[in-house]
From TrEMBL:
This is Protein kinase domain-containing protein. GO terms for cellular component: plasma membrane. GO terms for biological process: cell surface receptor signaling pathway. It comes from the Eukaryota. The lineage of its organism: Eukaryota, Viridiplantae, Streptophyta, Embryophyta, Tracheophyta. The keyword ATP-binding applies.
Length: 208
């Protein structure tokens, strides 16, 4: 079963849950980001059968013993295919749900891109996506970036030490902000997101 596969639990567990004392070096976080992005790209590339997940969040990203991610729980997609009315099921943690989807009820691939952007911010800050109703990670990060032209102040201190690490984190932060754009036309697709993350990884491997 999926849960036997998840030797390390979910991304939620290792970022914020019982496994929180788990050391998560930047390269491992980058690999998790790439694996998750590749999983979404694969789902989105199914031609006519393209799947839009609609409920991408750290709880639904399961990690095996080597931290390889698998995206699970296609609940919302199944419900939408059966044409249930979205309003009845508001599934998903609101922190990850595309506001455009909430307004229009149209679930697109760019809705998953939005959720992925929220997850990238969690990977680089190790803060949960919602603190309380007055404050969200996305809004906080945007504010800091606008004010300081950098997301550095919010980055997880455990990994934001070396200059080249900070460069990589800034680039992941920029990608996240693009994935979280209000206008879906301004968001990259998952293919472009994968390319950018893979380039960052290559860049790091060349330097090490």
């Amino acid at each position: 079963s999926m849960y036997e596969f998840a030797g390390k639990g979910s991304l939620q567990d290792i970022l914020h849950g019982n496994s929180r004392n788990q050391k998560l070096p930047l390269d491992l976080r980058l690999d998790i980001a790439i694996g998750t992005a590749q999983g979404l790209t694969y789902m989105h590339s199914y031609g006519n059968q393209a799947i839009r997940h609609g409920d991408v969040k750290p709880d639904n990203i399961l990690l095996d013993d080597k931290f390889v991610p698998k995206i699970s729980d296609f609940g919302l997609w199944k419900l939408l295919r059966e044409e249930y009315y979205f309003g009845k099921i508001v599934a998903g943690d609101m922190a990850y749900v595309d506001p455009v989807f909430l307004k229009t009820g149209q679930l697109t691939e760019k809705s998953d891109v939005y959720s992925f952007g929220a997850i990238l911010l969690e990977l680089i800050t190790r803060k949960p996506s919602v603190y309380d109703e007055y404050c969200s990670l996305i809004l906080e990060f945007r504010k800091v970036c606008e004010k300081e032209k950098s997301g550095r102040a919010m980055m997880d201190k455990e990994i934001a030490t070396e200059e080249e690490d900070i460069y990589c984190l800034e680039e992941i932060g920029k990608l996240a902000i693009e994935c979280l754009k209000e206008d879906i036309e301004d968001r990259p697709d998952m293919v472009a997101a994968v390319e950018r993350l893979v380039m960052l990884k290559k860049d790091r491997m060349l330097k090490s």
